């Protein structure tokens, strides 16, 4: 356990190596673990995935909203009981119950390529072996942030899903266009019926243009959205709501939301990003100073907005 990262940690990753005959018991255990974790205070998300499809090595990422909530979950009797139930399923000499790492995990701090692959019938074992090979190759590239490979989940969805994560779009593009990857794709091509891929980026990607660098942290993006959305909503309450009072609540809400989204998307967010760009993506040499100055600026702007609307209302 790396306790040095605990003060800033909001996630914990547990590594598990299963015995060969524990597939079904582990599936049932996952359901119980998901239920237990999701009921914990401050729970944010849970990601349980194998190293690759069919692998006995699994990674369990438990995300929480704060370091305090994470610490409560780490020492929770429910969690301890669940891992005690998991112990007989683990491979002797494999990952131990204490094979864990606490860390900060920002879901928007990386870019993900989603690849959907239809494998030729009877060639699944070849594809699994190839997935392990390409995993080893891409992990050597700068910026690599992890991979998830998921087998087809139903008869209607006959494709393998692969998530490939890198720190920045430029680093992901470097891997996708590399000679190593092209050679590996050529090797597996006879066993694949079709490929399809797309890129997952920040949900606010349209407001924070891709500069080739890591996107602004999630909390900064959210803070800036709040800064421009709050006055729009307050002005709607003051001036628009009386005009919509005679309409059904669903219609009135739809109209208000449509106006809010339109105004925030254009031009307000573009203006806000333009003026706060120095804080969203500070230069490394000035990062600490600009982080502090930007946080103070945002706090000041929030207080100004609150003061104005407390006087108006």
From TrEMBL:
Alphabetized UniProt keyword annotations: Membrane, Transmembrane, Transmembrane helix
Annotated TM spans: 224-245, 251-280, 292-312
Keyword Mitochondrion: no
Coiled-coil residue windows: none
InterPro entries found in the cross-reference section: ABM_predict, Dimeric_a/b-barrel
Source taxon at top rank: Bacteria
Name under which the protein is recorded: Membrane protein
Species, as recorded: Caballeronia hypogeia
Lineage: Bacteria, Pseudomonadati, Pseudomonadota, Betaproteobacteria, Burkholderiales
């Amino acid at each position: 356990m790396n306790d040095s990262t605990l003060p800033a940690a909001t996630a914990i990753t547990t590594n598990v190596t299963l015995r060969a005959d524990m597939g079904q018991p582990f599936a049932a255990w996952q359901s119980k673990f998901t239920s237990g974790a999701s009921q914990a205070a401050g729970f944010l998300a849970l990601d349980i995935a194998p190293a690759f499809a069919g692998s006995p090595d699994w990674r369990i990422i438990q995300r929480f909203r704060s370091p305090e909530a994470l610490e409560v979950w780490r020492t929770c009797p429910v969690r301890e009981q669940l891992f005690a139930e998991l112990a007989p399923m683990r491979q002797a000499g494999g990952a131990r119950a204490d094979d864990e790492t606490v860390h900060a995990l920002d879901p928007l701090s990386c870019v993900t390529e989603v690849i959907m692959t239809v494998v030729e019938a009877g060639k699944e074992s070849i594809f699994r072996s190839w997935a392990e090979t390409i995993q080893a190759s891409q992990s050597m590239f700068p910026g690599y942030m992890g991979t998830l490979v998921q087998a087809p989940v139903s008869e209607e969805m006959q494709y393998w899903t692969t998530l490939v994560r890198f720190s920045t779009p430029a680093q992901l593009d470097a891997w996708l266009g590399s000679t190593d990857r092209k050679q590996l794709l050529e090797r597996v091509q006879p066993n694949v019926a079709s490929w399809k891929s797309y890129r997952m980026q920040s949900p606010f990607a349209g407001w924070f243009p891709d500069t080739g660098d890591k996107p602004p942290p999630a909390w900064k993006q959210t803070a800036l959205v709040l800064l421009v959305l709050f006055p729009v909503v307050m002005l709607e309450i003051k001036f628009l709501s009386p005009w919509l009072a005679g309409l059904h609540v669903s219609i009135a809400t739809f109209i208000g939301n449509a106006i809010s989204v339109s105004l925030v998307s254009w031009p307000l967010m573009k203006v806000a990003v333009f003026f706060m760009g120095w804080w969203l993506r500070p230069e490394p040499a000035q990062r600490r100073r600009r982080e502090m100055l930007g946080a103070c600026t945002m706090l000041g702007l929030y207080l100004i907005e609150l003061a104005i609307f407390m006087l108006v209302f």
